[in-house]
Write a structure and sequence with these properties.
By secondary structure, the chain is of the alpha/beta class. It has two domains: about 5-145 and about 315-355, 3-Layer(aba) Sandwich (D-Maltodextrin-Binding Protein, domain 2); about 155-315 and about 375-425, 3-Layer(aba) Sandwich (D-Maltodextrin-Binding Protein, domain 2), CATH 3.40.190. It has 18 helices and eleven strands. The strands form two sheets. Strands 5, 6, 7, 8, 9 and 11 form a six-stranded mixed sheet that branches. A five-stranded mixed sheet has the order 2-1-3-10-4. Helix 3 (about 50-65) links the parallel strand 1 and strand 2 (about 70-75). Helix 1 (about 5-20) packs antiparallel against helix 15 and helix 17 packs antiparallel against helix 18.
Length: about 425
């Protein structure tokens, strides 16, 4: 029988009270041993996401365990966060700890990050999942530059009550079913799928890489994505363009809101029940379950001619130590704390999925996501984390206009191909690198 959310959370907190004082054995004791006051700064770009809540509560719990250490949490704007980090790194005026995205983002900025191998104890690092995605060559043996905060999903969310009122018995599994369900939902008075930039303020328009990940899952294996990186599968290839053309048809077929480029209340439209579906991430799961309760559930966006058997499940971000920090030992002790039961309980309570192997999640929709991998869905990384930054930036500028029917898929993908072609060969070779 499944434990209740309260029972699991109580068990996690009980375990935390026993083990939190021994974060990583002698390492933690050493980090606490000095009575000198140490002040660390942590930069984050989470805005109002659940990750911000988790980070704030992790800091509070850590400071309670380590009275001589204070950690100042500084919220930086998401749209130019990495530019600010780079500028601060040049002048050595940045933080001791920085939120960092994994994948090629880590490799791009690793020159001012500290390799955690040998700095954070292996007993803590070995508990974390997906360290390869923040290591040189995506090989964990080279050492990770990021301590993951959580397991993230790009995923679809849907309102079961809206589906029932529209006479839809199950979620769509391919393009044809999705188009058909959109017609039923619209006839029942709902916006079938809502888009806007309210979910993650990375720019003035909605972030298209959630959807793009599933468009390419619909075409290629995880290994096959390397072709998009090295150019052997051009962004302008018929297969890629065909997928984006079917995606653009969501707008022309009435599946989306009319103001996809300007809507800033897409989350509110979904949580109020006015919109039936939304593609988002686990950083907003708690908002959805708080508002909709058992009416909300997760589904794999069916952006394929045949049922997709892949899901984006990936340690998308976490905490890094800057190479110029004057307090690396204390910063490393905080990162080691992330691997403890106490930290997992805090992360779970914030509505996120802890990255520590074997930990639980009490949010039922998050648990549903974890079950996808257990039922034959292949985990994929986030497409924007394994695509070069210049290409991601180009796509972020033009792809929303494709869904809004203001730019053709061919024109948008041509700009992305140009961005890739203009990169040095070292950034589009046989292995992921920066």
């Amino acid at each position: 029988m499944r434990k209740s959310a309260l029972a699991i959370a109580t068990a996690l907190l009980a375990a935390a009270s026993v083990s939190a004082l021994s974060v990583t054995g002698a390492f933690a004791s050493s980090a606490r041993s000095s009575s000198a006051k140490v002040s660390l700064t942590l930069w984050e770009n989470y805005g109002t996401e659940q990750n911000a809540t988790a980070t704030k509560n992790l800091i509070a719990a850590y400071e309670k365990l380590h009275p001589s250490v204070t950690i100042k949490m500084v919220s930086e704007p998401a749209d130019n966060y990495f530019s600010l980090l780079q500028a601060a790194a040049i002048s050595h005026t940045g933080p001791d700890i920085a939120v960092m995205w994994t994948g090629l983002f880590t490799l791009q900025y690793k020159s001012y990050l500290e390799n955690l191998k040998g700095l954070v104890p292996s007993s803590a690092l070995n508990k974390m999942q997906g360290l390869s995605w923040s290591s040189t060559g995506f090989n964990a043996s080279n050492g990770s530059y990021v301590m993951p905060l959580e397991q993230q999903f790009y995923i679809g969310f849907y309102n079961k009550a809206d589906f029932k009122k529209a006479g839809i018995a199950s979620v769509p599994t391919d393009w044809s079913q999705l188009y058909g369900d959109c017609t039923k939902l619209k006839s029942a008075g709902f916006t079938p799928m809502v888009y806007g930039n309210g979910g993650q303020a990375l720019g003035a328009e909605f972030y298209p890489w959630y959807d793009a990940s599933y468009l390419m899952i619909g075409n290629y294996s995880v290994a096959g994505w390397k072709g998009l990186y090295n150019g052997s599968i051009p962004w302008t290839s018929p297969g890629v363009e065909g997928q984006f053309a079917k995606w653009a048809a969501l707008g022309t077929k009435g599946c989306t809101n009319d103001n996809v480029l300007t809507d800033t209340n897409n989350l509110g439209q979904f949580t109020s029940g006015k919109a039936a579906m939304m593609v988002d991430g686990t950083w907003d799961t708690q908002k959805f379950t708080d508002a909709l309760g058992s009416k909300v559930a997760a589904f794999v966006p069916p952006f394929s001619n045949t049922p997709i058997k892949g899901v984006v499940q990936y340690p998308g971000d976490g905490y890094s130590i800057t190479s110029y920090s004057q307090h690396k030992t204390q910063a490393a002790a905080f990162l080691a704390f992330i691997a403890t039961p106490a930290a997992s309980a805090i992360i779970n309570k914030a509505g996120l999925i802890p990255d520590v192997t074997g930990t639980s999640t009490t949010n039922p929709v998050n648990e549903q996501m974890l079950q996808f991998a257990k039922h034959g869905y292949t985990p994929y990384p986030m497409l924007d984390n394994v695509t070069q930054g210049d290409v991601v930036n180009a796509g972020s500028k033009v792809l929303p206009s494709v869904l809004a029917d203001k730019m053709s898929p061919a024109a948008a993908l041509g700009q992305m191909k140009d961005a890739l072609d203009n990169l040095p060969s070292s950034q589009r070779g046989s292995s992921y690198s920066y």
